[in-house]
Amino acid sequence: MVILPLAPFRITYILMNKNFTLLISLISTFLISESAHSQSWEVYDTKIQLQSRLIYDEIDLLSETVRIGKTGKELSLLSSDLRPAVALVGTEIYQYLEPWILVKGPNGIGAFHEYGQQVLPLEYEKIQTYFNMLLASKGNEYWLFQRGRNKTTYLGELDEAKITNTGLIIIRKGNEYSLPLSPNPDKTFELLSDNDGEFVLAKEASGFGLINREGDYVLDPIIEMLQHTHGNFYYGYNQNQYLLIEGNDIKSNIRYNSFHKITFENDIMLEYIHGKLRRVMEGDGILLDDVGMTAVNKIGKDLYNVHFRDARIGLLGKKGWLVQPMLEVDEIKFGNEGLYPAKSKGAFGFVNSAGTWVIKPQYAETTLFSEKIAAYKTGLSWGLISSAGELVSDPIWEEIKPFDKGLAIAKANGKYFLLNTYGAPLNTEGFDDIYRTVDGYFMVEKSGKTGLLNSEGSEVIPTEFEWLRRERKNFVIVQKEGLTGVISEAGEIILPLAYEKILVDWVNEQIFTKTNYVPTVIQTVEEPSKKNKKGA
User: Fold this and answer.
1) pTM score, whole prediction
2) 150 assigned to some structural domain
3) In what side-by-side order are the strands of the sheet with 160-163?
4) What is the pLDDT of residue 13?
5) Average confidence score pLDDT of the chain
6) Distance between CA atoms of 442 and 436, rounded to whole angstroms?
7) Number of domains making up the chain
8) CA 330 – CA 479 distance, rounded (Å)
9) Omega before 519 within 30 of 0, i.e. cis
């Protein structure tokens, strides 16, 4: 690895003796052949002041502090001044899972800590990571590295091993499970099941229980049936009682118990009293207690259509009714801005939270309201209506996306347009595609070229680049004819279109530019037949 000074890199040889000419020529040829395919990187600050020049094939910015340099088949972890600090042995970065750098080599993958310590050799097929440990495997053999102990332990030949989301290790050999990092590592279980909560579901001959992140029981294994629902909640059955249990780091709590039947299917818990549906349950108790229910259908996360014997249907949310039960409706969807798409006799309209039709069912399909405007579909085309049910646009569009800050993206005849809140297109000529950026700008494509519109739909960068990325205000990375540069939104050149690649690290206020680099070698040979003149 070579770190270049700020000045251009030149090698000058002044030969005073003919006998050295061949030697110097050989040295020069060697230097050129070694460096001709190298890549030069220039590092600027955010004021575009040159800080340094580097020679690497590639530079990867994995995080604010982790930078990787690659030259040939060599990888290096770079220091803060971008010099090689630690050789990473492998040939490519396999994955970066903070604080672990997984590196791939010809014999497998290994791991380095982001501070530079190699903790696993490059010989494994898979590596699972956690904050302070790694679980590595080759075939059915497993090893565990614990950073606190700075030690790798061989776990043996196993059928399965995994790290839970709380940092426990579950291993399985045959039909036996165990927790090698628990206070009782040799204890075996009939089942150990991880979930998105903070507790492991365990089963022994005596029953089911819950184990915390330290490997201790917080619910003794005495429950006849237990399964995870969501978060730290569990649904169980024991001694003819149905139970809703909440996990706790010290001792789990039974939040609800009943001798009446509770079912848990399709992610819905329902309680039946004397064979009739009576309650909709949630993790820690009763969500809805009402008579006359016949069915509950889940339509989304914490969203349910509840059906009644008298043909009413309501929309139930996590905190109660979003739409009161109403007649003459087949289904009610999640809504926005106080209006909910609802279907009746095959047509969609909108209802309010009281279960009253605000816009009568008359459309084949609708979207949610956004900025008091929704799209509706009749036949194969889409139009726009206001929240008062007034027509904003006739159905002439193939697609209409939601409004945001007064503009929507719509498609017609295979081309994309920006629409204002009156349903009028801002651009007379359609684009091949339009993408809304996170900061409200629009990237547009036409004939394979890319440009940029501002949040009001006005062109700020013409559609003439192969690609572009708006890093921040007045700093847009663009590529044209294979070369990359930076321009402002007014088209002013910040960095010329002369680079292969540009990387930006805003936290450390550094801009990395990559170019081809061929060192200049100058040979000055003075023939021995000529003598130096005095004073020369």
Assistant:
1) 0.83
2) yes
3) 160-163, 169-173, 176-178
4) 32
5) 90
6) 5
7) 1
8) 53
9) no
